[in-house]
Amino acid sequence: MRAVVYEEYGGTDVLEMREVPTPVPGPGEVLVEVVATSINLSDWENLRGTPAYARVGGMRRPRHTILGSDIAGRVAAVGDGATRFGAGDAVFGDNLSHGNGGFAEFAVMPESALAPKPARLSFVEASALPQAGAIAAQAVALAAPGSRMLINGAGGGSGSLAIQLAVAEGVHVTAVDNERKLDYLRTLGAEEAIDYRSDDFTRTGRYDLIVDLVAHRSIFAYRRALARGGRCVVVGGTARALLRMTTVGPLLGLLTGARLGVLFVRQGPRQFEQVAQRCASGEIEVRIDRVFALDEVPEALAWHGEGRALGKVVVAVREA
Ligand SMILES: NC(=O)c1ccc[n+]([C@@H]2O[C@H](COP(=O)([O-])OP(=O)(O)OC[C@H]3O[C@@H](n4cnc5c(N)ncnc54)[C@H](OP(=O)(O)O)[C@@H]3O)[C@@H](O)[C@H]2O)c1
Q1: Are 139 and 251 part of one and the same domain?
Q2: pLDDT given at position 103
Q3: CB of 69 closer than 6 angstroms to any ligand 1 atom
Q4: Of 98, 177, 238, 320, which has the fewest CB atoms closer than 10 Å, so is most exposed?
């Protein structure tokens, strides 16, 4: 099969289209004929091997050499003991914990990571939802109706869904991202939109909940921006910021009455299926910015990394 492979951490120039053996599903696994794979920040992080947690699977070289974790496609074969799906079923899921593999014509995934694709969603749309949907749903579950929530890194895949889910719950959302995305954030329902390159969101008000998808601030800065009894969770960001949040965060919280910590996102169909159903019913929107072909994976990653995408960037591996 054709696959986009990398064997060392680096920029998009380390990616190479190659002919590699089609993987074989083991017990409990499914071979998926990939139709579409969306790009997440984790792909970019795993390509470059930074932040440090991106090297958990291989300190010097990537252990899994094909990126692309958010996969939508059709079941091509099933391994021993895999009973939930049969050949030809349309499925989607997040393969982040199982070696990724979506920038290829076929990928092996545990059947437990997969859900049936809603008929009303295209493969491109479905591929945009597993990781971002799970993050958005779990972040918004922490917000109470009528409360003030700030989302930093709000213009990306998870943030775009989180804004809409929060607004649907009656939460007042302030969204932070770069200047080019501010109108987009307002169209998603954000009451206020802040440019992170010119304003410091930790000095713009007090929030009941702060969700930071790209954290790099000190815990004191977050604490300053929290209302009494407020909560701050970081989801991704620099290793330093995540470490500070796990170690000093709870301590500072004990002293000040605020709650500061890391949101460890649970994966799997139960975490994203409901969001997908709400997208399928038209209640919330899955925004697709651009669709690239498999041999354009380096361009797709660069487009995502350049900060111009308004919505998800997707790689369409084959015709639906
Ligand atoms: N905790 C867990 O269990 C878990 C699990 C999976 C994933 N994650 C993490 O969750 C995060 C999900 O992100 P995503 O996929 O939604 O990312 P994304 O689509 O890349 O969106 C990130 C957004 O943040 C913006 N941004 C970049 N630097 C910023 C800054 N300094 N201040 C404010 N905004 C900034 C980006 O804009 P620009 O275009 O300007 O760069 C982009 O719009 C990732 O960090 C990932 O590693 C965590």
Answers
A1: yes
A2: 98
A3: no
A4: 320
Determine, yes or no, domain membership for 27.
yes
Cα–Cα distance measured from residue 233 to residue 238, given in angstroms and rounded to the nearest whole number:
14
Residues 150-181 pLDDT 10s: 999 999 999 999 999 999 999 999 999 999 99
Tell how far the Cα of 28 is from the centroid of ligand 1, in angstroms.
Answer: 32
Whether residue 56 is predicted with pLDDT greater than 90 in this model: the reply is no
Nearest CA to ligand 1 atom 37: 307
Q: Are residues 136 and 123 in the same domain?
A: no
Residues 15 and 100 in one domain: yes
Residue 215 sits in which domain range? 132-262
Residue 172 contacts residue 190 (beta carbons within 8 Å): no
The CB of 233 under 6 Å from ligand 1? The reply is no
Cα 213 to Cα 279: distance, rounded to the nearest angstrom:
22
What's the pLDDT at 252? Answer: 87
Same domain for 28 and 124? yes
Domains contained in the chain, number: 2
In this structure, what CATH number is given to the domain that contains residue 35? 3.90.180.10
pLDDT at 254: 85
Which residues are CB-neighbours of 204 under 8 A, at least 6 positions away?
174, 192, 194, 225
pLDDT reported for residue 307: 78
Regarding whether 112 and 51 lie in a shared domain, the answer is yes
Q: Whose CA is nearest to atom 26 of ligand 1?
A: 153
Positive or negative CA dihedral for 78, 84, 86, 88?
A: negative
Alpha-carbon distance of 217 to 103, in angstroms, equals: 33
Residue 14 lies in a domain: yes
Cα 237 to ligand 1 centroid, rounded to whole Å: 7
Instruction: Kindly state the average pLDDT of the residues 96-119.
Output: 97
Query: Where residue 258 sits, what CATH number does that domain have?
Result: 3.40.50.720
